[in-house]
Amino acid sequence: MSHKALFFQSLKPKILKRLQSCDIPNATRASTSVREIDRIRNIGILAHVDGGKTTLTERILFAAGVTNRMGDVDKGNTVTDFLEMERERGITVNSAAVSFPWTPERGLLRGKRHVINLIDTPGHVDFTVEVERALRVLDGVVVLLDASAGVQPQTAAVWRLADKYNLPRIVLVNKLDKPNANFYNCVKSLNEKLSGTPLICHTPMDQSNNKKTFTGFVDIVNLTKHEIGSLSDDFEVSEAPLNNQELKCENLLEARDNLLNVLAEFDDSLSDLLLSDGFDSLKIETEVIEQLIQKVCQDRGNISCYPVFCLSALRSLGVRYCIDAVCNFLPPPNRISNESVSGSNSLQAFVFKIFSNPQFQKTLTYIRVYRGCLKSTDVLQIVGRGRDGMEQVANRLYELDGESVKKVHEIGSGRLGVVMGLRHAKNGDTLCRKGEQTSALPGFAVPKPVVFCRVEVESAKQIPKLTAALTSLCREDPSLAILDVKGVQKLDTLKPEDDFVIGATGQLHLEFIKHRLSTEFRLNVRLGPLNVQLKETVAKSASFEESKTVRLRGIDNSISVKLSVHPLWNNSTSQGSLPLENLVMFEPDHLSAEGSEDRNLQAVKAGIYDGLQRGHLGYKAHHLSLVLHHFSTSDNCSPAVVQSTVASAVRSAMKKATSLLLEPYMEIEIAASNDVISDVIDDITNRRADVKNVLSPEASDDLVNVAFVAPLSKILDYSKEVRIKYSGKVSINSMTMASYSLKTEQQ
Question: Which DSSP string corresponds to 21-38?
């Protein structure tokens, strides 16, 4: 079988056929003892776009003996980037997981076999949800930095996500073989831009004697040197202990002293030793240093330090050291603090990803088992999220094993796995066994869509197929929104006769959805022009009261309603961050119970919802509060009449309060060559941008970083336009939602 079966996302049709016929008589157990849990590592690789994540994954798989060749991103033959769009563009779109065994060659756990589950995550801001849900089930991360650029915007963004989940991490300074690489500037940017204190465990070899290329690094902890003879294709790396002359090097002694000084803050005995007379850092045992690094790395309650290592993934220098560091310093599943993997036999599993194949009509659910043991044919129940007790059967269980997808009878605690047959499961669900009780696990944040366009097919005959395809994609991708032409969410009520508007987190996200509709669902779709979803609010407070009688089927339906709307912003916040949600309040003391039934109260709430979903100007209302002061109806009043009357009253109140339009603003960071920076700033100023910062980095790449905020309507095609206009001299580092601000008539 192709090595592409190493990861969940590469379940191509021929592999799915095998899954269908994979009735192995002696299917493997995957339950986990305490000792086995200690030898499991669930990790992810994080970096900015083009940081080298996929290249490092290829080198790791080759070093582990899982593959017999190293794929190349530029050639489009990597293991984890299997989608056609990923290979064409040379970027990662889906988070892809691989599993492999590894026995460390050095360190505290030297010679002890481990199983590493590794997730290669996207670096593009449009696919942040893939990073978010991967981090939700990981126990540690490996962060890559480009030695020529230091900490870049998306690196800082994913670092904050790792902080959010309290994930221990190690840092690899990658691409040290680049001509403009600077290890020390990179470390400096770590100190200035990211939380925590770096523990410098490697330094580049002395590049004196006019050596202009990176030839290796010095291990400060083990006092060894690792170098490559030439930048050829043999990837032979030598390792040797430092000789007496090298041990006296001033830079080495200073680096080792600095490392021990940081570690001494967490260990009193080491602190006392440093203050003693005649202290010699070279006499501190390697094992003592490694134990302290492990201690500070695995303290999830206070993640303040992280080890930093040298790496050239392209040249395979430092790759083995990286995997050893994962085993030695990052924690196993049984040392996490937010969920327990022991202490109870009851099952607790978390759904973090769903993948469907339309050709074989199979839904694959990716889970992390936090407690207990999931067995095939278990009847599972969903916990929390308003869907308690919904039952489904785990028909088949799979784990990744070397070069194949392996069927198992059980998936033990601390492990990742694939379940077939969970038709009702959704991203973020907590699962337990029928008859057992467990608490619902926290989910993960999903970014809201910011760009929208209409999607159409060639003929009306394809509309039902499009409906099914969009429903399936929304189940897989929680950041994808399906709306009607009025901007109302339609995921749960899709009908073949509807017009569809899809909302995505960016233009690249939209292109990816179109590609999947065309290739996987065999739909020839057309996307309309990009548009921005406006919202509306009110300029002042206003109340509206209405009493009317509607004769319906010979029966008089009388209703009286009084409500008021109020802005949740003022002049000082009109151009800044506005509150994102509406506030709806009821005054029960003023509600008339005469003739009012529960069903009409529900109709009132539905009317308020309808009125806020499409306000006076036809857009979704935001940043306002609504107070219902009075409501009464006649006996047997139709709920439909109540709902439509209340919705009309909401819109009338908004009209009376002067409806205003809001438009989304994006926060953008770009890097531009110094020779075009003036033109770039003039261009973004013409796009109504507010320039926040212009910074020239110290790295020798002659790039100027510019941070600005601009209305989304003015930058919909900005990435494409700057690529063409400036011939690659301008790159977009990040683009995230900033806020909604007032849209004036002049704008």
Answer: T---TTPBP----HHHHT
Tell me which range, 60-69, 138-147, 438-447, 497-506, is most confidently predicted by mean pLDDT. 138-147
Query: For residue 398, what are the CA distances in angstroms to 346, 421, 425?
Result: 20, 12, 17
The arithmetic mean of pLDDT across residues 389-413, rounded, is: 75
What digits encode the pLDDT tens for the residues 545-602?
Answer: 988 887 777 677 788 888 999 888 765 444 444 444 556 665 554 444 344 456 677 8
Q: Are 351 and 425 in contact (CB under 8 A)?
A: yes
Instruction: Find out whether 181 and 175 touch, Cβ atoms under 8 Å.
Output: yes
> Each residue of 235-259: pLDDT tens digit?
556 788 888 888 888 888 898 999 9
Does the pLDDT value for residue 677 go beyond 70? yes
Tokens encoding 289 = 């240093």
692 inside domain: yes
Domain match, 563 and 621 both:
yes
Instruction: Using DSSP bridges, classify how beta strands 500-504 and 730-743 pair: parallel, antiparallel or unpaired.
Output: unpaired
Please report, for the domain that includes residue 398, its CATH number. 2.40.30.10
Judged on CB neighbours under 10 Å (0-12, 13-18, 19+), 31 is middle
68 and 208 housed in the same domain:
yes
In a domain, 502, yes or no: yes
Residues 6+ apart with CB under 8 A from 113: 39, 101, 102, 103
Residue 555's H or E segment, with its range, is: strand 555-567
- pLDDT at position 89 is 56
How far is Cα 161 from Cα 132, in angstroms, rounded to an integer? 7
Structure confidence by residue, pLDDT tens digits, 255-283: 899 999 988 888 888 888 888 877 788 88
In a domain? residue 274: yes
Q: How far apart are CA 552 and CA 163, in angstroms?
A: 59
How many CB atoms lie under 10 A from the CB of residue 258? 15
Q: Which two tokens stand for residue 246?
A: 């090298």
DSSP state letter for 71: -
Structural domain range at position 516: 451-527
pLDDT of residue 142: 93
* Residue 116: both structure tokens together: 């590493």
Per-residue pLDDT, averaged over 396-424, amounts to 78
Residue 405's pLDDT is: 62
| Three-class SS of 520-535 | CCCCCEEECCCECCCE
Phi-psi region of 397 (alpha: psi -120 to 50; beta: other; left: phi over 0): beta
Among residues 630, 657, 684, the one where a domain terminates is 657
